[in-house]
Amino acid sequence: MIFGKFYACAAVLGCLLLVVGCAENPGKWPKDKVQAKIEEKLELTELTLNPREGGGFEGTGKLGGETVTITITQDPASGRMSWDAKGDRGLVETGFYELK
């Protein structure tokens, strides 16, 4: 009887972890969460993002006095968010964030 309860609790916990893990997929993040991660990774201020046709986001931000144009692609299947950033003073950066 005790083992039955243990396995039932373990199964429920496993399902909860699976659901929470899916919610954390960067390929499915909403705009506010994407914006926070991009601001953190690129150390941007004044970031403004808009949805792109076909998924992901695009927008502009500031890095010091440089204006940066950003294109963000989200891939739900791989759990990945990637970006390309180009500044008006020569900054070029690509990167990605994924959970494994």
Summarize, please.
The protein is an alpha+beta fold. The protein has two helices and five strands; from the N terminus they run ααβββββ.
Relevant terms:
2 helices, 100 residues, 39% strand, 34% helix, alpha+beta, five-stranded antiparallel beta sheet
Describe this structure in words.
Helix content is 34%, strand content 39%. With 100 residues, it is an alpha+beta fold. The chain has one domain (26-98). Strands 1-2-3-4-5 form a five-stranded antiparallel beta sheet, with helices on one face. A hairpin with a 2-residue loop joins strand 2 and strand 3 (66-75). It is globular, with a radius of gyration of 18 Å. Mean pLDDT is 85; it is low at 15-22.
Detail the topology: elements first, then pairings:
Layout: H1 2-23, H2 31-42, E1 45-51, E2 57-63, E3 66-75, E4 80-87, E5 92-98
Antiparallel strand pairs: 1-2, 2-3, 3-4, 4-5
Globular, elongated, flat, extended or rod-shaped: what is the shape? globular
Major sheet strand order: 1-2-3-4-5
What is the residue-mean pLDDT, rounded to a whole number?
85
Which band does the percent of strand residues land in?
Answer: 35-45%
The figure for the number of domains is 1
Extended strand count: 5
Oligomeric form of this entry? single chain
| Class per helix and strand makeup | alpha+beta
Runs in which pLDDT lies below 50 for 5 or more consecutive residues are 15-22
Helix content: 25-40%
| End-to-end Cα distance | 36 Å
The SSE order reads: HHEEEEE
Largest sheet: 5 strands, antiparallel
Taking Cα atoms only, what radius of gyration do you get, to the nearest Å? Answer: 18 Å
Number of helices: 2
